Input
Amino acid sequence: MTAEAMPDAASESPLEWLVFAPDEELRWQAGPRIQTVYPWLALAIIGSLAAVAAIALELLPLVGVVLIPAVVAPAAWQYARVTRTTFAVTTHRIATRSGVLGVSVRAVPLECVQNTQRSQHAVGRLVGYGTVTVEVAGGSDLRFWNVDDPGSIQAGLESAREHGRSADPERSAVADVPGSIEQWEAVLEEVRGWRRTLERSESKSN
Output
């Protein structure tokens, strides 16, 4: 991921949730746009004020105050969900960290990235945020959701993917061969069996 395509990660704090290899470096990290919580916050404020007004006007009994946590909880959950989500790209991998009550970490080698897609709804196009979906070979997709400047992030991911493949051509070539290592070892053993059979046949004919 080039510095031109993405913000410089040198000033970012280390990722406590991701164990780095000795030769691995952080290139970029970010999280969902915090402003996407604002609509939930507005609903929480309006709902709380409405409940207080209804109680003050005696349209609701005093026990109606229990409605306030009910309208605040979704906004609090969305805030925690956004602030506890991190997306990262290193010299070797792309990774995500998420979870409110627990922690879920997923990391995928760059050579396993097959494609990237960018999506933005009308509001996202207007204010400059969107979602970048990373298609992963042999696994479920990764989503960098509600991130600022998704176009630059997508371009940076594509650059990192190509750089990751070219940096280790032998590993990339192996990744492009269909089938697992175990399957190819089984094929190799079968070929060796045929060779031993042919050698025994030749020795008997001689």
